[in-house]
Design a protein that fits this description.
Layout: H1 4-26, H2 31-59, H3 61-80, H4 85-113, H5 119-143, H6 149-155, H7 158-168, H8 175-180, H9 184-194, H10 201-214, H11 229-244, H12 247-260, H13 265-292, H14 295-316, H15 324-356, H16 362-414, H17 423-431, H18 436-442
Length: 443
């Protein structure tokens, strides 16, 4: 139920891809105005992520997710009714507040409620729902293409927002937040509801209480403490690379790039649907891989394929435009890139931060990682079309391919394996100091 926040996140970020083809003509948008309409949601997401982290410390994870659902509904309705560019930009900013809040708080809520052995796949369910939202967005973009259809595309997001808000009313609060607030009995009751019958929830509560007592809740200033730096570096680094490797440049602008490269509107929109399908497949495979293979190994196995596919796509755009061979090479390499990148890093990005960041600063630290995702995403959204005009499609995609290589080196050097470990055991390894990666890999 809480992962429906991911579906809304995926739909509201992905729907602009199909809407933009008609929107730019209906509102007579320049390339720069198109970039602003696409990217303002990311500016809102940065603000929403910061706000959600602060509110979650005071009011709890569950109430923040409910508030996010309300903001989603308001933003979607406002975007559908927007009479001009200014009001549409404002509505997209409001939607961004909800996207940032969802991407920050839903993974934390799931991580703090899930048992260690299946925590990975439950958290990746959020990313899978993001992919499902993007697929639905592409299907709606294809089905509702035509002048004015973009208003219906935006309005449809109100329905899942209502379902999320109502559904969260019946869900419990995070047991770890309850323990942190001194509400132990409520936490015991929640865990008894969430764990299989016969589970010794008292033992888990004792472990949570021990860690919470040793590290009382902190704020932004506590992020500067030396012992936290390895976890913060990993969380922020993976957040940045999830965007620097090029995923959202493709998700946002694929139909526009393909139309400008000589593909017809219908073919470009159908290719967008294919991208959505590949994102869903990547989400399913990633959900299985992170618990069976491990977080670190999943990235090291699949990111090389992501970089290679992006490089092949860059080379394809160097060839003569319009040939059948070039078009098929672009489409196949585009789909392969989405699949490998989706499994290799998109399945991990919303999982790794809430897992390795200590309870004491999980709110502000997760906010920082989430702001990094949206900040770098904003940079990509604002520069993608401009970069293509400046250095061409091939040059732009070669840069993204290089970023995949740099990401692989970062994972190999810094990212620890957290599969099957409790959040408290991960935090104790961080406290011991030394190499965070080696402490977890060797313990």
């Amino acid at each position: 139920m809480s992962a429906l926040g991911g579906l809304l996140f995926g739909y509201d970020t992905g729907i602009i891809s199909g809407a933009l083809l008609n929107l730019r003509h209906d509102l007579d948008l320049s390339s720069r105005e198109q970039e602003v309409v696409v990217s303002v949601i990311l500016l809102g997401a940065m603000a929403g992520a910061l706000l959600a982290g602060r509110l979650a410390v005071r009011h709890g994870r569950r109430k923040v997710v409910i508030a996010v659902a309300v903001v989603f509904a308001v933003g979607a309705a406002a975007a559908a009714a927007a009479p001009g560019v200014g009001s549409l930009v404002a509505a997209r900013f409001v939607l961004g507040l909800a996207v940032g809040g969802a991407s920050n708080m839903v993974p934390v809520y799931i991580a703090e409620a899930a048992p260690a052995r299946i925590r990975g796949r439950l958290m990746v369910l959020f990313q899978l729902m993001v992919a499902c939202g993007q697929l639905i967005a592409y299907l709606c973009g294809w089905a509702l293409s035509g002048s004015g259809g973009w208003r219906t595309m935006f309005a449809l997001a109100v329905l899942p927002a209502v379902v999320l808000g109502v559904g969260m009313l019946f869900l419990p609060e995070s047991p770890r937040w309850l323990v942190e607030r001194g509400r132990r009995e409520e936490a015991v009751s929640v865990l008894a509801r969430l764990r299989p019958p016969g589970t010794d929830v008292g033992r888990e509560i004792d472990e949570i209480t021990e860690v919470a007592a040793a590290t009382p809740a902190g704020g932004w200033r506590d992020l500067r403490q030396r012992w936290m730096r390895p976890a913060l570096l990993v969380a922020v680094g993976i957040a940045a690379f999830s965007q620097l490797t090029g995923i959202n440049a493709v998700v946002y602008y694929a139909p526009t790039i393909l139309v400008d490269a000589g593909f017809g509107d219908s073919a470009a929109l159908l290719t967008g649907v294919g991208i959505g399908v590949m994102l869903v497949i990547a989400g399913v495979v990633g959900a299985v891989a992170v618990d069976r293979v491990g977080r670190r190994r999943t990235m090291l196995w699949f990111l090389p394929g992501s970089g290679l596919a992006m490089a092949v796509m860059a080379l394809a755009f160097l060839g003569p435009e319009g040939s059948s061979a070039q078009r098929w090479t672009v489409i196949v390499s585009l789909f392969a890139y989405i699949l490998f990148n989706g499994i290799g890093i998109q399945a991990v990005v919303w999982l790794i931060g809430p897992e390795i960041l200590p309870l004491r600063v999980r709110g502000p630290a997760t906010s920082l990682a989430t702001v990094t995702v949206w900040g770098v995403d904003l940079l990509i959204a604002l520069t993608a079309l401009t970069a293509i005009q400046a250095i061409g499609r091939s040059g732009t995609f070669f840069v993204y391919a290089l970023m995949n290589v740099v990401c692989i080196a970062f994972v190999a050097a810094k990212v620890p394996e957290t599969r099957g470990r409790s959040l408290e055991s991960i935090e104790r390894a961080l406290h011991r100091g030394g190499s965070f990666r080696k402490a977890l890999d060797g313990s």
